[in-house]
């Protein structure tokens, strides 16, 4: 049976085909280079977001950064992380044979699904991992409303 | 581009990761620097401290291995992830002599630094050029 030609449907079909091929490529790539993932996947620095009803914790892989050079700021429901990762002081006459580590300035923003209690945000840096605790603003927490019997 | 001063080469081993390990193993991003006196390797290993890092040199195979202690916050669920927990391992072959006794390794803020001093012959020798009389 010949289907009528519907342009958007064709486009959607092509998109699906492209997605399928993309997944196939990813899978193949994974097969050949299983360990080679981290470098080019996400923007520096990679973050994980953990939540519970009381707030969120953001953990950031940020090795080799002076904690004083990390700027954490919170406005409303958005967390912004800025900083700079500078090269170690190179010895005289040093040359790079290989250079994979990120260097330079970074700035990332993350929007959370709730307003943050900016006064109680805490950030801690240990072994190259930055952990930011972001409590949910009291005003943003759900209130339980008692249903009264008439 | 390269000057003729590259006396030592560090080549990466392409041995596959040990797949039987229960945890994922990642290759840490590295910078390799060479100076006339030594080779310097910097490896990003966030979450690793000096108690769970292992640097070994067997024959000419240098292995960097770091074990990560979970830093998952208690009482929270992971909602969004850009990195995965796992250990680090990367292996290099050193093509020339290194002064084995003088290898130094240190880790700070999740960055491992390994200094491999070149052994005698690999160092650059400056040959004085005498002017003809």
UniProtKB/TrEMBL annotation, chain A:
Ranges for domain SHSP: 38-150
InterPro entries: A-crystallin/Hsp20_dom (IPR002068), HSP20-like_chaperone (IPR008978), Small_HSP (IPR031107)
PROSITE patterns: SHSP
Stored Pfam families: HSP20 (PF00011)
Gene3D superfamilies per record: 2.60.40.790
Membership in a protein family: Belongs to the small heat shock protein (HSP20) family.
Protein name: Hsp20/alpha crystallin family protein
Lineage: Bacteria, Bacillati, Chloroflexota, Anaerolineae, Anaerolineales
UniProtKB/TrEMBL annotation, chain B:
Superkingdom of source: Bacteria
Family annotation (PROSITE patterns): SHSP (PS01031)
Pfam families given in the database record: HSP20 (PF00011)
Location of the SHSP domain: 21-132
PANTHER family the UniProt entry points to: HEAT-SHOCK PROTEIN 20 FAMILY MEMBER (PTHR11527)
Family listed: Belongs to the small heat shock protein (HSP20) family.
Protein name: Hsp20/alpha crystallin family protein
Protein species of origin: Thermanaerothrix solaris
